[in-house]
């Protein structure tokens, strides 16, 4: 049953409590302090009654001094216990969400690429960040406070009936109405909170996507249109919150009115009894204090139960993400160490969506140490080959082998460790250039990184940067040019010494000068290694010993540059188109 339904989801709470077990000492201490606070709560009205009836009414100054000191000690004890309680509950909440967030992120980084293809990043961020924070409230403002408030209510009611049965019955006349109002409030606020969490996820998704694509928005003058979309989503978020506020603003005045009514009944009935000598003024004052203590936790119970319910809704979303079945399959046992580098595709069929085949019965062999280029029209399946060799996706039919061993038999991390990739869209982290090359591998020293950067030609511009290797290129490397980012990515590959090299459009979007540098870097990176080069610019692969031409998921032509030109087929057509474009660019300049 969903936690957003009519019943509380205890199974979800049990799953959350699994993460509490490592911190059970905190939890036990918190429960004990909760019991102590619940026991101390009714003491003050009782002491007030004694002070009024036994000491003030009898002019006993020594007795009054003693009871005042006792009351001060009780207040001090409550203050100390409340401080410890608040510290422990918040610490417990933070420890739990730290553990849960770490566990969830560890699972997310092992999701297959198919999950990220269909799941908006903003929603995943919401689960990891704001939904996690809501779970912390289960412990700081939820389940433990509910236990405390329930105990306090029970103790107060028992004491009230023990002191004066009739006065207790009179003062609790409004309690059934309060319970009904609390139930209505709790039911409606749960629905509105579900809506709020949904709108938060939509808002995060929209903002994350548009901040990432802000250049596109600005280039195509879409600011006004996207602003209108944002206004609608933002308005839905605002309206959802306003609905929840409306229920709060209605419920709390109702509680105050019922509380005031109970106090009025106590004053009317208890005051009359006191005048007639049937009850003491101390009991009257104590009952007024008990009513305040009684209604406060009942009022808070609705709020705290909804805090607990909110945490359960968030935990339901989080565990739904945790239970995703898109995790990468890593059942291989072999270590891909000291491989020679032979790559073979044997009758491979692959589709991102069922029966929409990208690769169709594809077969080819790349001998160890050979450098092979793949060309073809957009959508031919070139980049898909890269994704499959790295097992970012799993094939539907056929086999992919490295050194005559199916890649599914290799341990996944071991397999990826021997494959170095330079992508067209290079991603740099917002950290130093050194860390972007070493990728936080402490075994790769700064001197080694500098030497590699010198070999690739990247040191020429890095040495001119303000902090050199410590320079932060900004988010996604936005402070560097495309070519500069690509040179750093070449250095990244060299630093990790892979046996297989894959270059995906690594020189497709740079000027001629940088292209020459990248071609030299390519020759250095691929030397002596099995290399797969995907290129749009055919001029960069003219010297390749072997070129494979793909179309609609199949290899339709194969040979070196001269052989393919002589065929006057697809490669010949692609080359002539690019040659004419380059001639037009040269004449235009």
Textual characterization of the structure:
The chain folds into 2 domains: 10-322, ABC transporter type 1, transmembrane domain (ABC transporter transmembrane region fold, Up-down Bundle); 343-588, 3-Layer(aba) Sandwich (Rossmann fold), CATH 3.40.50.300. 63% of the residues lie in helices and 10% in strands. The chain contains 21 helices and 10 strands. The chain has helices at residues 10-18, 24-40, 43-56, 61-108, 113-118, 121-128, 130-163, 165-171, 175-212, 214-219, 223-275, 281-322, 382-389, 412-417, 433-438, 446-456, 459-462, 482-495, 512-526, 561-567, 570-588; strands spanning 343-351, 357-366, 371-376, 397-402, 405-406, 419-422, 500-504, 530-534, 546-551, 554-559. The strands form 2 sheets. The protein has a 6-stranded mixed beta sheet, with helices on both faces. The chain has a 4-stranded antiparallel beta sheet with strand order 2-1-4-5, with helices on one face. Helix 3 runs antiparallel to helix 12, helix 4 (61-108) packs antiparallel against helix 7 (130-163) and helix 11 (223-275) runs antiparallel to helix 12 (281-322). The relative contact order is 0.08. The model is unreliable at 1-7 (pLDDT under 50).
């Amino acid at each position: 049953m969903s936690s957003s339904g009519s019943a509380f989801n205890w199974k979800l709470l049990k799953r959350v409590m699994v993460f509490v077990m490592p911190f059970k000492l905190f939890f036990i201490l918190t429960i004990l302090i909760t019991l102590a606070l619940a026991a101390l709560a009714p003491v003050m009205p009782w002491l007030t009654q004694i002070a009024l009836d036994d000491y003030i009414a009898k002019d006993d100054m020594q007795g009054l001094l003693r009871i005042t000191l006792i009351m001060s000690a009780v207040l001090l004890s409550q203050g100390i216990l409340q401080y410890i309680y608040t510290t422990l509950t918040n610490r417990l909440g933070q420890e739990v969400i730290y553990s849960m967030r770490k566990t969830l992120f560890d699972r997310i980084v092992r999701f297959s690429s198919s999950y990220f293809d269909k799941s908006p990043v903003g929603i995943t961020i919401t689960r990891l960040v704001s939904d996690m924070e809501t779970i912390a409230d289960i412990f700081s403002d939820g389940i433990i406070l509910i236990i405390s408030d329930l105990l306090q209510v029970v103790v107060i009611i028992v004491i009230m009936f023990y002191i004066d049965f009739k006065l207790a019955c009179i003062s609790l006349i409004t309690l059934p109405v309060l319970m009904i109002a609390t139930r209505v409030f709790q039911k409606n606020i749960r629905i509105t909170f579900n809506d709020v969490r949904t709108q938060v996820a939509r808002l995060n998704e929209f903002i994350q996507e548009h901040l990432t694509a802000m250049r596109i928005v600005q280039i195509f003058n879409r600011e006004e249109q996207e602003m209108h979309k944002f206004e609608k989503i933002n308005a839905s978020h605002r309206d959802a919150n306003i609905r929840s506020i409306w229920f709060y603003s209605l419920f709390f005045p109702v509680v105050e009115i019922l509380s005031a009514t109970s106090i009025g009944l106590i004053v009317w009935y208890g005051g009359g009894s006191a005048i007639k000598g049937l009850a003491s003024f101390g009991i009257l004052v104590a009952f007024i204090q008990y009513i305040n203590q009684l209604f406060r936790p009942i009022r808070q119970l609705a709020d705290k139960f909804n805090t607990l319910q909110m945490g359960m809704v968030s935990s339901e979303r989080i565990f739904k993400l945790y239970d995703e079945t898109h995790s990468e399959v890593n059942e291989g046992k072999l270590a891909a160490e000291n491989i020679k580098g032979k790559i073979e595709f044997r009758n491979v069929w692959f589709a991102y969506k069922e029966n929409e085949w990208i690769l169709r019965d594809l077969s080819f062999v790349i001998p160890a140490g050979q450098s092979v280029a793949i060309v073809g029209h957009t959508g031919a399946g070139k980049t898909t080959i890269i994704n499959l060799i790295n097992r970012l996706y799993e094939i539907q039919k056929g086999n992919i082998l490295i050194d005559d061993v199916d890649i599914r038999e290799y341990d996944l991390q071991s397999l990826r460790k021997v494959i170095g990739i330079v992508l067209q869209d290079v991603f740099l982290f917002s950290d130093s250039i050194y860390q972007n090359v070493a990728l936080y591998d402490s075994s790769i020293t700064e001197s080694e990184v500098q030497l590699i950067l010198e070999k690739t030609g990247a040191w020429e511009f890095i040495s001119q940067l303000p902090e050199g290797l410590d320079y932060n290129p900004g988010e996604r490397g936005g402070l560097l040019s495309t070519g500069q980012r690509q040179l750093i990515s070449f250095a990244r590959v060299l630093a990790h010494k892979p046996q297989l090299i894959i270059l995906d459009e690594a020189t497709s979007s740079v000027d001629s000068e940088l292209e020459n540098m990248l071609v030299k870097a390519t020759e250095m990176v691929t030397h002596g290694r099995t290399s797969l080069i995907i290129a749009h610019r055919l001029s960069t692969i003219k010297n390749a010993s072997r070129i494979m031409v793909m179309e609609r998921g199949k290899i339709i032509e194969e040979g070196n540059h001269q052989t393919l030109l002589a065929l006057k087929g697809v490669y010949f057509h692609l080359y002539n188109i690019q040659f004419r474009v380059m001639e037009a660019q040269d004449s235009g300049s």
